[in-house]
Fold:
Amino acid sequence: MNEIFLMKLGEIVLKGGNKRQFETKLRQNVRRRMKPYGDFDVYIMQSTVYVEPKNGEADVEGAWEACHSIFGVVSLCRCRPCGKDLDSIFNAVEEYLGDDLDIAESFKVESKRSDKQFPMTSIAISQEIGGRLAEAHPDCRVDVHHPAYTVYVEVRDLAAYVHGPAEPGAGGLPTGVGGRAMCLLSGGIDSPVAAYMIAKRGVEIECVHFFSYPYTSQLAKDKVMELARLVTRYSGRMTVNVVSFTEIQEAIRDNCPEEYFTLIMRRFMMEISQRIARRDGCEALITGENLGQVASQTMQAMAVTGAVVDMPIFMPLVGMDKEEIVTIARKIGTLETSILPYEDCCTVFTPKHPKTKPTLGQVMHAEEKLDREALITAALENVEKITVKYHDEAGM
Ligand code: ATP
Ligand code: MG
Structure:
């Protein structure tokens, strides 16, 4: 094999006693993520994940791309393994990175020696390889302070590895080390970003989506499923619980004062989400709420909506500006889908003058005529569970 990926672990390294558990999870996650791309060996040694194609049939480019969205990895690089002697190291650099050196203005060699049996120090390796490379590439001068290009040499237990600059990984913690949470996923910009941010902290994600057919269309639902799929690129496969909300919205419209429509509706969403979450082993709810963005996102409104549940509610976007949220949405690839112009059930029966500073007493009074329990039970009886994965054909 002449190319492998090395991925450096992030915060995991700091986790002391939990380190082994974190590494096991990460290894499982990487193995699962590599499946669609062929046969790969995945192992962890010295705080580094090794991903090695087992044969020439593997889709190395696809695998490399996929490695950038695995949480728990801070940086990654493609390398050429070689024998642990200076001639092999030099030849590997020449073959693998020679073209890069030809076009660079300056370079340096940085070496690391985790095999302490190796007879030379890191500095001596760098000097020796650097000297030979300088001779081979007379137009590329050595500059140890501000090199245009850095050649890395790592002498590890099994082999030596040479590579160019590493790329940033997805960061965060390996999926599955932080429990499981239920994200209320709409078709907007915010909630997919919220799901991504909590997933990044090692949390497995499940979603719930409320739709109000025929007030909202099949296209609107398809859009949400596509957003969920885009999030699975990072979070791994997930279940989306699709809940029909039509009956509840009509009951609210027919029985409650208009200025409270949105608040009452959101209280139903929270309560139904919590019940599905409990059933499925989730221990927190996630929403894309953002302070001050709309009438239902004032502190007072959040207090009233949050009052129907007792699980923690994670709102990772609460203090961000729209522009910051949009930047993340663009980065993770959900923005284009989010801005497709389909209606959301929140925009059905929107009050003209929503209450922005409600008290819990007022809202409870406004929903008095509803049989909350009956409506919730009915909604829970018809939850459609859909499994979403990034690749249809494989087991991600
Ligand atoms: P988003 O961009 O995520 O839709 P938003 O700014 O439009 O957010 P709201 O429509 O007030 O805000 O919704 C606030 C949060 O409530 C959303 O971020 C999402 O977590 C949840 N939510 C809203 N509509 C739905 C829905 N139809 N199904 C599931 N969750 C929803
Ligand atoms: Mg919305």
